[in-house]
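=== RUN LOG ===
request id: a7f3
mode: sequence -> structure
chains: 1
length: 94
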Amino acid sequence: MKRLLTLVVLALMVGTIFSQNVKREGNTFVEVKSDKVSLKNDSLTAMTYKAKDGKEYPIYLSKNGKAFIVRVSKKSGREYKQYLPQVTEQLNKK
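=== RESULT ===
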């Protein structure tokens, strides 16, 4: 029983170590983060959203039926989802 428990804990530790996205740079480890948003469970609509700055963004629907657009952060340059509750309400009224 003790041996089985040790093997389970060891397997969990190894799985945790390899599931992290890190790369080695010399003697330091740096976490690798993705700059892209995953859209694999989301669907693209035919509608667009015009922001205050004049840019038009395609509207996506999440698997839960929430409307959102994909924007890029000015500070970090990463993509993020901006949810649009007003658009979601209008789509649900129809």
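=== NOTES ===
The chain is about 30% helix and 35% strand.
The longest strand covers residues 43-50.
=== END ===
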